[in-house]
């Protein structure tokens, strides 16, 4: 687990050493970013001695480290890390370390672009962004997306071909981040829950997708979460059970993913992590995306749910599924990180 050891140097200055594992040979100080940058710059391909300490840095520390590296060496730290990523990740061609060192909104912009450019659009990656980020952060993502790719994220989602049920939902969620009220309202949640019931399992015909999309587009994620809680309180079961019972078709499969991600993110990500390693086809991209995006959010909850659900520690499952080496050590360091 990550921890801190504090020493008093000869100048009577406190130095904080981040210690994730006892075999981390080069430790990084949180007060002297120039020294940290020198260690990274001089490490060349031997990043194995630094990766666990890098995994312990906070977002602010990573930002300061990147700014210092640019000032001292005239190069973006990300570019330096990417140059040695192939050595660092061995046979795993996945830029986990580079993604980790990016500002979160830059990272999400890159993840979104990669999701849209795949042969089969990675809709789950997009859902995780629009469901798991605050509206202020989503605004920064769209700005970073435009600055980096000279494209509009919303428009790229709308223009996807062929059309897909996820597409409608993502457009609605994007609209919700622009239009919702900050405060949650219990009366609205009850009214929306009733509307969802009446257009779903309480309706003999097919679900009215327009009603569902309207609610998704006008409510914040916390408000939607409250609506699904109200649904369970009123009708005695989760809205996901209603989706299974109603005539939702392919739209329902997409909606199910969104609702699960909203209602219980720890459970959603615990399953996503397990499936990415133990599923029919190992999905390193999904594994990295989940670990990097949730390490500073709710990794403690995810680990707890993972252990309860699969009766194994998350770190142990990663070690079972990923070959030994620096890359695995870095993923384990993220998975065992305390917030």
Automatic annotation (TrEMBL):
The lineage of its organism: Eukaryota, Viridiplantae, Streptophyta, Embryophyta, Tracheophyta. One of its GO terms (molecular function) is phosphatidylserine binding. It comes from Abrus precatorius (Indian licorice). Keywords: Annexin, Calcium, Calcium/phospholipid-binding, Repeat. InterPro entries: Annexin, Annexin_repeat, Annexin_sf. GO terms for biological process: response to cold; response to heat; response to salt stress; response to water deprivation. The keyword Repeat applies. It comes from the Eukaryota. One of its GO terms (cellular component) is cytoplasm. The keyword Calcium applies. This is Annexin A13-like. Pfam families: Annexin. Gene3D superfamilies: Annexin (1.10.220.10).
């Amino acid at each position: 687990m990550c921890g801190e050891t504090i020493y008093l140097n000869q100048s009577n200055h406190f130095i904080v050493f981040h210690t994730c594992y006892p075999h981390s040979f080069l430790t990084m100080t949180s007060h002297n970013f120039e020294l940290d940058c020198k260690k990274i710059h001089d490490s060349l391909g031997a990043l194995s001695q630094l990766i666990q300490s890098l995994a312990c840095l906070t977002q602010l520390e990573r930002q300061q480290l990147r700014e210092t590296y640019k000032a001292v060496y005239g190069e973006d730290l990300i570019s330096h890390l990417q140059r040695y990523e192939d050595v660092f990740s061995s046979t795993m061609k996945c830029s986990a370390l580079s993604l980790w060192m990016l500002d979160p909104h830059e990272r999400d912009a890159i993840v979104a672009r990669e999701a849209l450019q795949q042969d089969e659009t990675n809709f789950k990656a997009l859902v995780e962004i629009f469901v798991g980020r605050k509206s202020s952060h989503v605004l920064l993502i769209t700005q970073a997306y435009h600055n980096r790719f000279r494209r509009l994220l919303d428009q790229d989602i709308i223009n996807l071909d062929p059309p897909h049920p996820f597409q409608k939902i993502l457009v609605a969620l994007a609209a919700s981040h622009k239009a919702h009220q900050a405060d949650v309202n219990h009366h609205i949640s009850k009214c929306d829950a009733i509307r969802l019931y009446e257009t779903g399992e309480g309706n003999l015909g097919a679900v009215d997708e327009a009603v569902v999309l309207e609610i998704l587009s006008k409510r914040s994620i916390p408000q939607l979460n409250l609506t699904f809680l109200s649904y369970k309180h009123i009708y005695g079961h989760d809205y996901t059970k209603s989706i299974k019972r109603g005539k939702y078709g392919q739209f329902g499969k997409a909606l199910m993913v969104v609702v699960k991600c909203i209602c219980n993110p720890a459970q959603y990500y615990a399953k996503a992590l397990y499936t990415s390693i133990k599923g029919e086809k190992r999905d390193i991209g999904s594994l990295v995306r989940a670990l990097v995006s949730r390490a500073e959010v709710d990794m403690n909850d995810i680990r707890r749910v993972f252990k309860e659900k699969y009766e194994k520690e998350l770190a142990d499952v990663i070690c079972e599924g990923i070959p030994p080496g620096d890359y695995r050590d870095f993923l384990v360091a993220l998975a065992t990180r305390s917030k």
